[in-house]
Amino acid sequence: MNGQEPLLGRSLSRLSEICVGIAMLLLVIITVLVVAQVLARNLFSTGLPWADEASRFAGISMVYLATPYLLFHGQHVAVTMLADALSGVKRALCLAIAELATLGFCALTLYGFYRFLLRAGRFSSPAMGIPNLWLYMPAMISIALLAVISLYRLGRMMQRRALVCP
């Protein structure tokens, strides 16, 4: 990012970096939990069901929290064969449709979370007793941030296109 990047771009970049930092911390937590569980089983002949649940939660959260950073920096998984074969307005339109598809995915996913949590939000996780709302919160935050980043990318595409085409 250069100094010319708009405030929204800098803010989104920083938010996505915070998410990646949390994801890295979660990776460390997963490692500690798995090692603790192995030691508890082998040395003390006891299981740690909460550690298994916590490591699963951390793993899923880690994946979701990394996605906004990847999208913001254009390092996400993308199939670009069609866009790479096109040029000019056709290429820009193809890339815009891809961003709109990402936005659609985010909207459907957030709506799905909303509908799911209307029912499941009343319950807690079996081992740790954490309310489902908190378990799904990292994924919901990440998808919402993904939608904002996708909107930002779409706006930047349109802005660049407007600069090229008078």
TrEMBL record:
InterPro entries named in the record: DctQ, TRAP_DctQ
Domain of life: Bacteria
UniProt keyword annotations, A-Z: Cell inner membrane, Cell membrane, Membrane, Transmembrane, Transmembrane helix, Transport
Domain Tripartite ATP-independent periplasmic transporters DctQ component: 30-159
TM ranges: 18-39, 54-72, 92-113, 133-152
Keyword Transport: yes
Entry GO CC: plasma membrane
GO biological process: C4-dicarboxylate transport
Membrane topology, record value: Multi-pass membrane protein
An annotated Gene Ontology molecular function: transmembrane transporter activity
Subcellular location(s) of the protein: Cell inner membrane
PANTHER family hit by this protein: 2,3-DIKETO-L-GULONATE TRAP TRANSPORTER SMALL PERMEASE PROTEIN YIAM
Its biological purpose: Part of the tripartite ATP-independent periplasmic (TRAP) transport system.
Family: Belongs to the TRAP transporter small permease family.
Subunit structure: The complex comprises the extracytoplasmic solute receptor protein and the two transmembrane proteins.
Name the UniProt record assigns to this protein: TRAP transporter small permease protein
Source lineage: Bacteria, Pseudomonadati, Pseudomonadota, Gammaproteobacteria, Oceanospirillales
